[in-house]
Amino acid sequence: MTASTAPRPGRVRRAAAAFAIAAAAALTILPPTQASAQGADPQRIADHFAGVRTMTGEFVQFGPKGEQTGGKFFIERPGKIRFNYEEPSDFRVIADGQSVVINNGRLNTWDLYPLSKTPLKLLLDTRIDLSGNKVRSVRQDEDLTTIQLQDKSIFGDSTITMMFDPKSYELRQWTITDAKGKDTTVMIYNVQEGVAFDPSVFTIDYARITEASQGQGANRGK
Fold it and tell me: Would you indicate the residue range of the signal peptide (predicted)?
């Protein structure tokens, strides 16, 4: 078993991209001023999304090379999320409001990062603040409203593209594009809102991670 408790910037971005909910890839996007003229209000849509305190459902994820996996997700604001990946992936991703842990069940490894160093921090806040030029572009289509965000203090050189239903403002999917232009795309379905979760759903076993880290250090000393 291996564990990591020190955040490494490049790996944080890759991990966040690999395990975030994501949307369809590149689109021809209108400038924010033109989109606003058509009625798309990014902050209003973000406020509606942030108003959903709990959410659960299923997802399908597509990686940069077209690899596909899926599973179930759970969200509770502020700061809590869980992805249970189905076989053969056997990954779990858990955020408890302070940290994000990525567990590879097959390799029995654990990687721990501060939630504040991942794009999930913005999306799981009580309020999603889109001020300060975070909105890079907006596109208003008949069946989708697409908002692309970029903030180096949160995403580094990555961007996140969120897609919403233009009438209900429900989140359909989102994409994280890394600095090399590679997309991780996840679509969500069978979504339920206002669900009560057992606290254990978002519990991170820090003692187990510490034990794994100490065991790794002991093995290196032999």
Answer: 1-37
How many residues are recorded in the chain?
A: 222
DSSP state of 200: G
Distance (Å, whole) CA 222 – CA 107: 21
Checking if the pLDDT of 138 tops 90, the result is: no
- Of 26, 33, 18, the closest CA to residue 135 belongs to 33
pTM of the model: 0.72
Mean pLDDT (the chain, rounded): 76
The domain limits of the chain are 2-221
- Preceding omega of 114 cis (within 30 degrees of 0): no
Tens of pLDDT along 120-133? 777 788 887 777 77
CA–CA dist 77, 124 (Å, integer): 6
Q: Which of 193, 216, 212, 185 has its CA nearest to residue 75?
A: 193
- The pLDDT tens digits for 1-36 are 445 444 444 444 444 444 443 322 222 222 333 334
C-alpha torsion sign, points 71, 128, 110, 175? positive
DSSP for residue 97: S
Residue 190: both structure tokens together: 């069978």
Q: Return the CATH number of 2-221, one of 1.10.10.10, 2.120.10.30, 2.50.20.10, 3.40.50.10490.
A: 2.50.20.10
Helix-, strand-, coil-residue percentages of the chain, each rounded to 5: 25, 35, 40
